[in-house]
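Researcher: I'd like a structural prediction for the single chain below. Treat it as a standalone chain; there are no partners to consider.
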Amino acid sequence: MYGKAFAPEYRGALGALSVNSSLEDVLEQALEQRRRAELSGSALESAHAGLAVAEASRRLGRVEEAERAWKASYRAARQAADEGAMAWAVWSGGTLARQRGDLALARRWLATAAELAERGGDIVARGYSLAGLAETGRIQGDYEAVGELHEKLLAEARRRGEARHTVWALEGIAQMHRNTGSYDSALALFEEAAEIAGKAEDARGRAWALRGIADVLSVRGDTERALELLSEAEDTCREMRLASALAYNHKMRGNVLFRAARYEEARACYSGALEKFRAMGEPRGEALSRLGLVKSRARLGRDLAETAADLDELHVTLGRIGLLHARDMVDKARTELGIVTAGAVPAG
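Model: Treating it as a single chain, here is the predicted structure.
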C-alpha cells in the first residue's frame, strides 16, 4: 500500500538524497550544490539547494544558518519565478519559526506557503504546509480547530500511499488522543505509525513513533519497556544527527523516570535536555524541560516557595509561547506538589 519514504524537501540535483541521509552529509552536498548553482546562474537550482541547506541546518539545531538559508532559497525561487519553490522555502521558514517558539509567525508563513503551493500547482508542498499549520495548532493545544485537518491530511496521504505523511498524521492524531486521556487509541495509532515507518524505511518517523509508544507505556507503568524503546529511538537520532529529536527524546526519558519515582535520574535527564534546547534556541522544549526539572527538584526536597515561583514563571512563559496544553500541565504540577496559587483557598 505504501511506497518507500521519500524526502520532497531535497529537490533538483539533490533529489536522490534519502529521507534517512545523514544531515551532515546533506548539508555538505547542499552547500556544494548551491555554490555550483550560483556559479552557473541557475536560480531554481540555487533555490532547491538552499532549501536543503535550511532543512539540514534546522534539524541540526543551527537555527541562524537555517534562517539565512530559507530566505536565500526564497529569493532565488522568486528570481526563477517558480511559486512551488517559493512555497517550499516559506514552508521551511514557517517550520523554523515553530521550532523557535514563534507560533504566530509560523502560522503566517505556513499559510502563505500553502497559498503559493496552490498557485504553483505543487500538491506536495501544499500538503506539507497544511500539515505544518495543523501541527502548530496541535502544539498549542487547539485540538478542536486542527483535529479535522489532521484527519483530512491522513486520508489524503493514505489515498496517495505517501508513507512519510501518513506516519506524520498518525503521530499527530495519536498525540492528541494521548493528551486527552484516550490511551488505547493513542497506542494503536503510534504502533501503526511505527509499523508503516519501518516498512517504508522512514527512520526519523519511526523514532518519533517509538517515543510516543514509550510515553503511553510509561503512563501505564511499563517503565523498562518504555526506556528500551527510547534507547532504540535515541540510536536513530544520534546516527542521523537529529539534534531537536534527540533533545525531545531525553526530555521524554525524564518523563518516564519521573513517573517511576526515579527522581534523581529524571533530574539528570531534564537537565541534559534543557542544555540541548538552550543551545539550539528552542524555547518550547526548553520550557517543557524546565517544568520537568522543577518537578523533579521538588520531589527531591527543594523549597516549596522556590518551586511555586518557578511554576509561576513557567506559566507565564508557556502562555507567551501559546502552549495551552502545557499551561494546563503547570496547573496540574501545582496540584500534584500541593502548591496553592495566589488567592486560592486550600481544600479542607
